[in-house]
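Need tokens for this chain, all 437 residues.
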Amino acid sequence: MELKEKLVSSFMAFEDNVDVHSSIHDIRTEAIKIFEAEDFPTKKQENWKYTSLNSVLKQDYSVFPKSEKALEYKDVKEYFIHEIDSYKIIFVDGKYSSHLSQTTHDGLDVCLMSAALSKPKYKVIIDNYFNKIANKDSLSSLNTAFSMEGAYINIPKNKVVDKPIQIIHFSTGNEAAMLLQPRNLIVVNENAHVQIIERHQSLTENAVLTNSVTEIFANKRAIVDYYKIQNDNQSASLIDSTFINQKQESLAKVHTFSFGGKLVRNNLEFYQNGERIDSTMKGITIIGDKQHIDHNTLVHHIEPNCESHQDYKGIFDDKSTGVFNGKVLVEKLAQKTNAFQANNNILISDKATINTKPQLEIFADDVKCSHGCTIGQLDESAMFYLRSRGIPEKEAKALLMFAFSNTVLDSVKIPEMKTRITKLIAEKLGVNIGFDL
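Here are the structure tokens for all 437 residues:
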């Protein structure tokens, strides 16, 4: 049975195990119809021109885990930013792990999507926010159809969250191949401020495919600081779709650090619904072997006097492939828009590939917009200078690549997070440099 047919038939069993009278029953039913009609995306679609899912979809994935496997904190501590105190929402093979988590309802909600979908006290939030900005494409619709578990975060008005929130999804390899579909809903109300760290981590070499959808609502003057760590095994693939709706004077930043995984597709979309909004998306990609990382971004400027800033850096070795497809859309009413987009890449190997397509679509006439991309190799004159000062070639290359990535690291607001990413970069480059950028 092909995966599409398996998923469509599994939906009936899924519906039998959830409340069919749930407020999102009709949403789920409509979503599976969209997926059934559209199927998985192919390279014939413009947005998927450089990314094929064929190698990922050939696995016989288990849609629901047959058994649960417990994890001890000591066995997975390295995957946490454990140097800081934080709220934690932890999932193991798609199931909530209470003993690894630290949730709260004390002045804010840091808890589970399953609770929000099933309990009457959350109905108003679900009705107003759930599935309101997620795309109706096939993969997002597939996630919507099976939406049951994930992180639910609701930050009330004027609340500055006292510590970061970590969302981690572990895959234990308890199944030969596993399909996971977490769904996150994050609502940050007026004048509230939150920092969130997200990670998907496989603990074995068994195949895992994660199709994740996150909806983030940054209301008036809210501040959202979001970090994605993607450093998974090369048997794991991730399709990560994040949609952000911003209101007046809000600030939202998303940093994506892509170092691991067989195939990673990041769909990141910002919608600016108000004036004086600031949207920032930055990323560092460092991959080798036959890894494939695809960043597909959109910033939709709808109203005037707003800004957006995109800065993606890529370092590609061996037979790896990188894709950047970034679009800035400025509507006619969005005068005084200031939009910047850059994608800069270094090819370490002659066999590595980068496909980059920065795009501007502007209907306003009083804007300041720029975009560009570069593809090249390390600066030979800079290499010569460092080598002439007695620095070995390997360390010299690492220094140059650290400097290349520094504009992204500079904007990381959690010091322990910056230190962890710096160490991950050093590991990816195969060096041990005793300083933090």
